[in-house]
Amino acid sequence: MTQRKMKDSGIEWIGEIPEEWEIGKIRYYFTIICGATPKSDELKYWNGNINWITPAEMSESNKIITESIRKITAAGYQSCGTELIPKNSLILSTRAPIGQVCISGCELCTNQGCKSLKIRTANTNYEYYYYYLTIQSAIFNMLGRGTTFMELSTTDLSDYIIPVPSIGEQQTIADYLDKKCAAIDKAIEAEKQIIEKLKIYKQSVITDAVTKGLDKNAKMKPSGIDWIGEIPEEWKKSHIKYCSDFEPYCDVTSFKSDDIVTCTPMECIRSGEFENREGPFSSYNSSYTPYEENDIAFAKVTPCFENGNIAIMKDLHNGFGYGSSELFIIRARAIETKFLFYWLQNTIFKQQACATMTGVGGLKRVSPDFVRNCPLFIPSEDEQKKIIDFLEDKCNSVNTTIMVKTQIVDKLKQYKKSLIYESVTGKREICHNI
After folding, report:
1. pLDDT tens digit string along 226-255?
2. SS3 of residue 306 by DSSP
3. Alpha carbons 434 and 432: distance in angstroms, whole number
4. Are 93 and 137 within 8 A, CB to CB?
5. How far apart are CA 117 and CA 413, in angstroms?
6. Helix, strand, or coil here: 201?
7. First vs last Cα of the chain: how many Å apart?
8. CA 256 to CA 241: how far, in whole Å?
9. Which residue ranges of the chain lie beneath pLDDT 70?
10. Any bridge partners for residue 236, and if so which?
11. Phi/psi of residue 367, each to 5°?
12. What's the order of all strands across the beta sheet hosting 46-53?
């Protein structure tokens, strides 16, 4: 096979394309339709039968979207001035986040966080351009504008440059990527399922160890608390407020404005670890949550609480830090810090804490009164240390396997992205019979 001739597209993120390909702006091949939202307090506008898609419903694994969480009525649709998009149009999230792409599997409309691309020419294959747009997220985000939130404007999207192969080659590339990406996605999903099973296993090991102990032959007794059940006979009942300081006092009187301290926004705390960022003491105020060396910090807001955003705050800059206002801080007093750290991750505690959550949507928070007054049973100091050693060993082993599996997923995703890029820009020539 002779090597196909290439030419410079003149566009940095496209690079070289086959000599016979063209380039053009999105507006030449698609009509852009902006989404809108009916008034939320008008009941007659909601719970109808018109699908109304938001960015929250779009994901990398959801190529074709046919059903929305919320639906609007005909009156709601007419009130907001948007337009129904036909089946096989492209939907692009253009704010919070920018860059998710899916295909409409039926006639539907979207909110203002999306812009839809309706085919306007016969030589345009929606599946080919679906794949092309899925790898444009970084560029789209660079084009985002705004102060309160970043948004990709209609003008910038309209003028965005795309490669234009023949309609036959578009179809060939789309068919090839359907087959190849399906195989990659299947491999990614298999690895993700293993990761989820490992997380469940780790959670069960922690829960058993901190509520039942390590000795399977130990005598048990009723705890007197339905959701805890039986506990080892020698364990002593306490409450979090009796064995630790909840939201403890931190003395900051000695700090100077330019002293460096640790700072941890919510995204810094993940699965028992934290990112030890730093900043000058003067950058923070009473709206932040203070903590000291060896304090336990964990999320109070959903879904971060359920996801296990918890860490022991160690090796802090100047022994002190400020974190998100959405963190609980606990300082162990009459209990081993690491035992309490693991206990706060046990499944039954998390389930009961979630039942106390108040608020709306994604802003629900665990009740501080529940955490403060929560009962727990404490083994002897020697047994606590044995449980800690056991869990350190088990959790480190599981975490290592999860890390390896996560790296495999990341490599598969990168390979998929590279495959799409090479195919949709013509650097990888696709034969019709593949």
Report:
1. 999 999 999 999 999 999 999 999 999 999
2. coil
3. 6
4. no
5. 25
6. helix
7. 15
8. 32
9. 1-2, 361-362, 432-434
10. 378
11. -70, 125
12. 71-72, 46-53, 109-110
pTM: 0.85
pLDDT of 300-349, one tens digit each? 998 899 988 999 999 999 999 999 999 999 999 999 999 999 999 999 99
Residue 384 CA to residue 376 CA, distance in Å, equals 13
DSSP 394-433: HHHHHHHHHHHHHHHHHHHHHHHHHHHHHHHTTSSPPPTT
Minimal CA–CA distance to 35: which of 51, 24, 15? 51
Q: What does the alpha-carbon distance between residue 153 and residue 145 come to, in Å, rounded to a whole number? A: 8
Q: Looking up tokens 């081993």, which residue turns up?
A: 336
Q: Could you give the CA distance from residue 277 to residue 156 in angstroms, rounded to a whole number? A: 35
Can you tell me the distance from the alpha carbon of 330 to that of 13, in angstroms, rounded to the nearest whole number?
49
Tokens of 276: 């030890």
Spell out where 195-343 has E strands.
Answer: 220-222, 230-232, 236-239, 244-246, 260-264, 269-270, 273-274, 277-280, 289-292, 296-299, 310-312, 320-323, 327-332
Strands (E), 19-110: 22-25, 30-34, 46-53, 64-65, 71-72, 90-94, 98-104, 109-110
The CA angle 66-69-70, to the nearest 5 degrees, is: 110
Residue indicated by tokens 């609480």: 305
CB atoms closer than 10 angstroms to residue 71: 16
Per DSSP, the three-state class of 117 is strand
Q: Which residues contact 148 (CB under 8 A, 6 or more apart)?
A: none
Under DSSP, the state recorded for 365 is: B
Are 280 and 338 in contact by the 8 Å Cβ rule? The answer is no
Q: Report the b/e string of 255-291 with b at 16+ CB within 10 A.
A: eeeeeebbbbeeebbbbeebebeeeebeebeeebbbb
402-404-406-410 Cα dihedral, nearest 10 degrees? 180
